[in-house]
Amino acid sequence: MASTVAADYKWSLRGLVGDQYEEAQHKVHERSAERLQRLCFANGGIYIKLGQHIAQLDHLLPEEYVLTMRRTMLDQCPVSSYEEVAKIVKEDLGSTPEELFATFEHLPIASASLAQVHRATSHDGRQLAVKVQHAGLRDSCTADTLTVEFLVNAVHFLFPKFDYSWLVEEIKDSLPKELDFSIEAANAERCRKNFSSRQTHVRGRVAVPEITHPLSSKRVLTMEYVTGANVCDKQALAQMGLKPKDVARLVSETFNEMIFIFGDVHCDPHAANMLIREKNGKAELVLLDHGLYKRITDDFRREYAGLWRALVFGDEAGIKQHAAAMNAADSYAFFACMLTMRPWEEVTRASADHLYLPTSAEGRKKIQGYASQFAREISDMLRRIPRPLLLLLKTNDCLRTVDSCLGQPVNTFTMTARECTRALNEARMREQPGLRTRIACLADTLGVEARISALALMSWWATACPNWLWLRRQPQPAQPPVIVSAV
């Protein structure tokens, strides 16, 4: 496939310039994305996982690839036969599904890249969901990873500026963990414990299905069966009397706490892994599929919190400082663009615009243009940044997609600023406990709240007076991000 794609690009774009080149490039992007989609579906497993990852890389790949994968990879996965499912259950648990459960539906209620879910009933009447791994994945894991590595290397050989070896390294690390459902069970238990603790501000509003450990193994995971609406189903939310903006706020608060407070992050939060149900008149978020987690150190959390607070308030010096701590000093500006999905001049604008106004289509296109122009430098940066950050970038992209589909003007940046400040203050209190530090933390919190309120007022004024907003924006020419070659 790699040679076919390469030949198509070289043949279709030869000698073209200007608008003709752009049009031809768009068509070859579409053809190549469809070829990659067919390859992923034909091979399943790790290839579907790769396609799902591509579906979230708005900031690095042409939109034709992203949109093609996003249309199909999240909810059109292959299905194993019941005979294969029953064989795996018996091999791992010692008995057939009919012996282990009072009822076990032969047709799955959902299928994903690595497993599918069947509805069942326990002998004591509990409603269960049984997740069974697709046959052969553990045996083919190493060979499939080597094949993907070959394809990535082939693309790099044909197009030297595109080096995605960092993606292969991440797959090598994360895939074996995702194929061990005992790890997923442990992740789910920690997540439930975190959101039941006194540290969380969303206690009682985040649920995790309870695991049935005696009926679980490395390839079978039995859990509580839960119902709810897809997080992006606005019609279902309306029927429950829930507002999309409240759901968006809950999702943002939940994942900000995971990242900045607990340091234990669900790194695959696409729409299919989040359900919403009504509880006491409010939204409750149900988190599914806990296979891909990243646990981050206190030092990393502190740097990442400092970086995000600098991003939220357009603090260029702070962005440079914390980007340098993450080995992205040479590409700090595009690094900021990747995290916020906003052009550099919007990130550093000393006003409310970069906080409150949605990213324009022009802005997204500009960032994709940066990614194409500086592909070599960006690939080098992605190899150098800390490994946990690679999965956090994916998490950000997944959450951004969910927020976009809800279509509500919820200021997630404001929530991020608050959680970053909370995380930084908690770190200060651990290091220097005492009244003086407590007073300093309180002053810092009040200062952030005052700044957020001022920015909100500016945003309201900008919305109420669009002519003023138009005049204020005119003198700000677009600037490309600062990217210095690492060579």
TrEMBL record:
Signal peptide: none annotated. It holds the Pfam family ABC1. Residues 73-322 form the ABC1 atypical kinase-like domain. It comes from the Eukaryota. Belongs to the protein kinase superfamily. ADCK protein kinase family. This is ABC1 atypical kinase-like domain-containing protein. It comes from Coccomyxa subellipsoidea.
